[in-house]
Amino acid sequence: MPENGDYERYFPTFKQFCGSLSDIKLAAAGRVDALWLLYHEHVRSIIDPMWDDPNCPCSPGRLVVAIPHAVIRDHLGVTWFERNIASTLAAGRGDHLLTRLMYHHRASTLARSLYELQSYDWFDGLLKKLRKDSFSGVAFEMEVLSLLQQIPAASAPQVETNAKGKDFDVLVNYKGHSVPIEAKAKADNTHWNPRTVIDTLKKASKQLPPGEAGVVFLRIPPTWVGPRLEAEYTDALHEGTRQSRRIEVVFSVIDKPHLTSESTGNVSTRYHLFRRSAPVSDTPWEMCLLLEELLGFEEFRLGPRAPF
Fold this sequence. Notes:
alpha/beta; six-stranded mixed sheet; 8 strands; 48% helix; globular
């Protein structure tokens, strides 16, 4: 398989693929969605045979990790990858299996999001912003963008401004209404404390624009899952949204690791919706209800899935 410096590259990016096509093929494909289908089939023709190829230098178990890492390097760069992923994996070789499992899950989710979103015209601008951020924040913002593509609405990441009321992550146009989105990811080793939720929501509220009802996507660390979360989480959400009309919905994403043997495991994802006690707008709530419903049916997922 071809090499990218000292790193493996398994297939081209969407931009590289389009650059390799002749003008005749580009004209014949026309629309971006047609080009994307050509690209997706090209990638599948490369990857699918690898899983069962006895001559492939990578075992299937290694491919599960190596392909996502290659995708991340191709889009975010070797420097970002070394700083945020390779160094952490090297430092965490002695970590508990569940900790390593969650880290690999985050990297795989990020890679799939990068793959599936790379044909959008805002993608290159988003990469410039992401290269300045840490792994946890980048992975969740990309995951939220991927989730939002499943609803029939136009969504696009926003330019970073650091200005109060204008520093949110994504703007969705749902049924003719603007719905600002802010994504907040708590580190997986964060200990549960209701104050953390309250402070996070108050900070997110200041980033959302005044006069509009928005949604905060909040990633729940697996360390929070337990009786205290069940008993105290809803009260913390009420307190965190009580004094601001800018947050209509909190859409919680909960990743829970499971061991399937002494050396293997998987991660399941659950969603939790919360609406402020004094509603301001029905639009964000209806949008999130639809998204939660669609995420429960894999066959309804829009667009080709990443083939890894």
